Amino acid sequence: MPVILWTDAMIYLLLATVVAAALWIRKRPHLALPWQRVAKSSVGMVSLLLLSLFVLVGLIDTMHYRVALPEKSNGQTVYSVEVLSVFDAFAQGIKSRTEKTYSAPLAAYLYAKESMETLEGKIRRDYPRLRYGGAHLADPQRELLGDVLKRTGIGALEGLLIGVLLIVVSNMLFHFFVKLRAVWSSTGLEISKDNWISTFTRAMKNKPLRALLITALLIAMLLGITVNLAAVYHVLGTDKVGQDVLYLALKSIRTGLVIGTVTTLVMLPFALLFGIAAGYLRGWVDDAIQYLYTVLSSIPSVLLIAAAVLMMQVYIEMHPEWFETSAARADLRLLFLCLILGVTSWTGLCRLLRGETLKLRELEYIQAAQAFGVSSSRILTRHIVPNVMHIVLIAVVMDFSSLVLAEAVLSYVGVGVDPSTMSFGTLINSARLEMGREPMVWWTLAAAFGFMLVLVLAANLFADAVRDAFDPRLNRA
Amino acid sequence: MKSDSSLNQLSSLTSSPSEIERGEFILNVDGLVTCLNNGARIVDDISFRIKQGETFALLGESGCGKSMTALSLMRLLPDGIRVASGDIKLEEEDILALPEYAMRKIRGGQMAMIFQEPGLSLNPVMTVGDQIAEVLTLHQPMRSKEVHLRCIELLEQVGISDAPRRASEYPFQLSGGMKQRVMIAMAMAGQPKLLIADEPTTALDVTIQAQVLKLLRDTQQKTGMALLLITHDLGVVAQMAHQVGVMYAGQIIEQASRDQLFARPAHPYTQKLFAALPDAGRSGQPLAAIPGNVPPLGAPRIACRFAPRCDKAWALCHEQVPEWTQLENGQGVRCHLYTSQKGSEKLNLETSRFFDSSTANGVGEEGKGAALLQVENLQVHFPIRKGILQRTVGHVKAVDGVSINIPEGRTLALVGESGCGKTTVGKALLQLITPTAGSVRFAGYELMGMSAKQLRKHRAGMQMIFQDPYASLNPKMRVAEILQEGMDALSIAKNSDERQRRIDELLEQVGLEKASKWRYPHEFSGGQRQRIAIARVLAVNPNLLICDEPTSALDVSVQAQILNLLKSLQQQLKLSYLFISHNLAVVEYLAHEVYVMYLGRIVERGTVQEVLHAPRHPYTQALLSAVPRIDGQGMKIIRLPGETPSPSHPPQGCHFHTRCAQAMAECREVYPSETIISATHRVHCYLAAK
Description:
The structure holds 2 protein chains of 2 kinds.
Chain A: E1 2-3, H1 6-26, H2 29-39, H3 42-60, E2 64-73, E3 76-85, H4 86-90, H5 92-96, E4 114-117, E5 123-126, H6 140-184, H7 196-204, H8 207-230, H9 245-281, H10 283-298, H11 301-318, H12 326-361, H13 364-371, H14 376-413, H15 424-435, H16 443-470
Antiparallel strand pairs in A: 1-2, 2-3, 4-5
Chain B: E1 25-36, E2 41-51, E3 55-59, H1 66-74, E4 81-90, E5 93-94, H2 100-109, E6 111-114, H3 118-121, H4 128-139, H5 144-157, H6 163-167, H7 176-189, E7 194-198, H8 206-223, E8 226-231, H9 234-240, E9 243-248, E10 251-257, H10 258-263, H11 268-275, H12 315-319, E11 324-326, E12 332-334, H13 341-355, E13 371-386, E14 391-407, E15 411-415, H14 422-429, E16 437-442, E17 445-446, H15 452-459, E18 462-465, H16 479-489, H17 496-509, H18 526-538, E19 544-548, H19 556-573, E20 576-581, H20 584-590, E21 593-598, E22 601-607, H21 608-613, H22 618-626, E23 675-676, E24 682-683, H23 686-689
Parallel strand pairs in B: 3-8, 3-9, 6-7, 7-8, 15-20, 15-21, 18-19, 19-20
Antiparallel strand pairs in B: 1-2, 1-4, 4-5, 9-10, 10-12, 11-12, 13-14, 13-16, 16-17, 21-22, 22-24, 23-24
Helix pairs in contact in B: 4-5, 4-7, 5-7, 7-8, 16-18, 17-18, 18-19
């Protein structure tokens, strides 16, 4: 049975908006032009590729369902209380292979010594073998390195082959469509007689396409290696209760994306509306908004969020009948966290936008519009908003990373996401004890760090490319 | 005072700037080439020499490489631009071969530079004295007491009164003219042999400009330094220069002594530049605008760069780069007219035409229409608020009782220095700034106190053209959208087809291609942008255009195009203009009536003839005399001491008495009432009343 949680609905809505906007822009050449410029930037395209991989994982993880149980009651199907996602089904392997406790990446032994009974009946303290990691090896001490290298090599080769195959297929498809279009539009254009290889060589002369190709192949190799190793090892080790860290990190992506995007969606209207209204209208509107955000930003936001989250938590616990599953409850908590973060974090951007609007409103094109008697709301939407969009874009992407971090901090204090929700915050939070332990457990933090770094860096670089493409001054004909 | 001479009229030069003995060549530039890293040449093969005590002026429009030449001399080129070849010798020193540490000694010590914007070239958090001291200690070992004394001495030299106090002040406490004086003092601190002045007076008012130019001349006379003056203003060149190099698209296309150049400009571009200057003598006919724009940097160099805009060009000009030619009288020029057989034939035909500058006076068409705009006693006061409760403690009287009357189809010019309130008048008329008191009657309707909704009905009649074409068009909107905005707001055209047709029509009217409507403003040059701005206001069929310095941000050749356009639009559409300007030559060319404004009030008004040729108010007289004329010093300069007082505390009595040389006792007590001199000429001055 498919399940749509609240945040799922928000994500679908966002996706629908993006698709609709893309279709709308496609028909308007002057709006599509800057995006074509993005397509010409190597950095932009490479970061977009990385970003879309993250988004893909997040989207697969968003499609939730409940499994039908085999037994039926009164002829009606009974569903399991556990809400799974399509991603869980894909990652069934690494999800179910839980160990006893910590194990290092690609290890065959546990990370803690245990008392074991030997064949002779003696008690010996040693590192026990893992239940799943490297279980196929007879003597891990000798065979482990060779096996890992072998699997890495095979994985890389497989990934490369699949990557090349995909590229060839997509290139042929592209070639086919181009031909189809040339046939359809029978405007007497010479139908290209060249085969798909020449289409490929022509595409390779294009620098961003070349960069994209190389990145795609590298990613394909990396994926091949990971898939190959993950089949028998814990690529990023296991955590305290023996869960695979790679699985946890991949599940965290959705939480990160939700926090980053939904919060931004909540924050943006406040910041944009209040910021430009205060800057443009001045007078008492400006005074009121300024007092509001000064007051709001002088309250420690952690305090405000903690109060709101705790209140909400109590409220949720008083109404357990509202929630069919624990996942629904955890999800509502995530949504509320986004709302609260959104309500408290608009002040910075608002102040920035107010300042920029103060500058813009004195410009002569605004005065020219005033002289035509253009209404204030129209001046705001037609003249001010497009000219502050670059600030919004940059601030939103910068906020994205800080919001993911804020979630980590809040989870640390205990007012973040539900403990059952996997997130970078909970990963980092658990690392608090692990880093202090001897010998140190570093891989949880490293995994969260690595994934967050790539995600935020890709988002930053992409936003940079977009901003450059939209700046008319940088794109003189 | 010569009453018949117009401001920019070409006539024989009578006197020349300060004749002092000139010695050896100090600066020797030979074949200087400066280019971008991609190879585009910004400065292309420039050679010139400057003698000791001599002023060499580099004249040219924006983007022709003047400033880059100066920065190449100082070796201060921005990143990505470098000197590719050439030779720069300061005395015997090879500037380009020096290591950077030796170059630091040269800068400030041998060669100093002052920049266009004095407000930006001083450090706002250091006192003026400290900044000068910094230069002093760099170049001469001195004890701190000596340094302080020398600072004050330098400030006194550049004519700053009360120098010891000023030395301990911060730049924000000084006015624009004083800041530029401080800059000159700083430049003089190292006792340089060569001073490079990059548009030193462009950001200043004419009366202040006159002060600064005089200071530069006096300093040069005292120290005997060489001066490299970079400017776009022919008037400044006429006052200051001994030698002139005319630059175009990175090259010096003509080089001559000042007298030769002004008597007989050789290159067609220079001739056009003179012809493009507006003045009353030509006000009946269109100005000789140079079509097109200055070519972009690094354009291909296979032909004469001016050929596409030159009306004397023939096939050769489009094929071959002209060589540098030295004429018999020492004048140098880069033009095929002087090298080839065909050229000299053409030349003989052309030369005679250049000198008969017709003096037909076109202002004559009187026949006043009905009054379109009547302004009575307009006041705009901005409250000064202080304290926690923001209580009003005073008022800045930006506009203080201005009355204006504009008939249909006429041009009224409002002139005055910056800060006198002329732009505020324009905005208050449009109700962009709510006036404090007074009456604005437009086409029979009183605009004051009208609600926003009612006002919208009358918006279409009165529109504004702004000063800066770069700030007046929304960079995120395409031309069609910009033009459509007013039509949408005032519901001019019914459906979108009709609007599009109207847009095409408007673009044609202002001389732009139809295809340009789908482009963004940044794809256009300054002059083209101003055309778009004009098309935007024409879209709503106005009767009155308020032009706020519409050409001051444009080059001379482009300015002429815009002035021609405004003039022809007036004839076609019977428009009235309120022309706000500080450029008296433009006013003289375009206006029928002139109002002179000082500190929020009109001090003199009348027809162009009356006000500009027989001014009665001492302020108008000073303003007129401060305009540098291209015929040298036509009249004695009346130097105005000091700066415009603050409008928050205007002086008691006549506002002008603090700067007026002829002030009398009664001037200090009561503001003079209006004195009627003729039917149209009125003035607020006790001198005229007598």
